[in-house]
Amino acid sequence: MGIVQIVNSIFSSNTYILSHTDSCRVWLIDIGDIEPVIARLLPGQQIQGVFLTHTHFDHFYGINRLSLFPDCIVYTSAHGQEGLYSEKLNFSKYHDHPFVFSGNKVKILHEGDRIEIFRGQKLEVLETPGHDPGCLTYFTENYIFTGDSYLFDTKVITSFPKSDKEQAKLSLEKIISYCDKNRTVC
């Protein structure tokens, strides 16, 4: 599996592109700036889905451009789904360009769910609330995608209205238990 990291223009959030040489399927972890994602697609590659770590606007502001890929599914938590459609919950209301998701292809994920992204490779789900109640962390055999639930050398922000410092601490402990020498933290 190949991973490309894109540092987005808003708050330096990240978008990760997951691809495999044996597949024309491409998956995203969060979606900010869409142009660099599209520029990296090879002929015939299609974005199958985007896995949201949470629905603060800096982690999904490029989502409405995914309408270019009509089969694309948005994966998030139940709380995350609420944030997709609420400029107040996703905090875009307080910035220059308030927005909400204009699509409806959403799949709700829960702790322990496993989604096959490539033949024989699954992305597994951890619920990691604290920064936001809807935070999800995803992992494969070799990678873990933590969003804002774990930022290396940075304290998890828990000062938002629905943040919870104690949950963030427990989630961080859970995430760290999945970090080992064979798994790269993204």
In brief:
The protein is of the alpha/beta class and 186 residues long. 15% of the residues lie in helices and 27% in strands. The chain contains three helices and eleven strands.
Secondary-structure blueprint:
Elements: E1 2-7, E2 14-19, E3 25-29, H1 35-40, E4 46-51, E5 73-76, H2 78-84, E6 106-108, E7 114-118, E8 121-127, E9 136-139, E10 143-145, H3 165-178, E11 184-185
Parallel strand pairs: 3-4, 4-5, 5-6, 10-11
Antiparallel strand pairs: 1-2, 2-3, 7-8, 8-9, 9-10
What share of the residues does DSSP label as strand, in percent? Answer: 25-35%
The average pLDDT value, as a whole number, equals 93
Poorly predicted runs = none
Q: Report the structural category.
A: alpha/beta
| Envelope shape | globular
How many helices in DSSP terms? 3
User: Helical percent range?
Assistant: 10-25%
Q: What features would you describe in this structure?
A:
- The protein is α/β, with parallel strands linked by helices and 186 residues long.
- Helix content is 15%, strand content 27%.
- The strands form two sheets. Strands 1-2-3-4-5-6 form a six-stranded mixed sheet.
- The radius of gyration is 15 Å and the shape is globular.
Provide key terms for this protein.
186 residues; 3 helices; 15% helix; alpha/beta; five-stranded mixed β-sheet
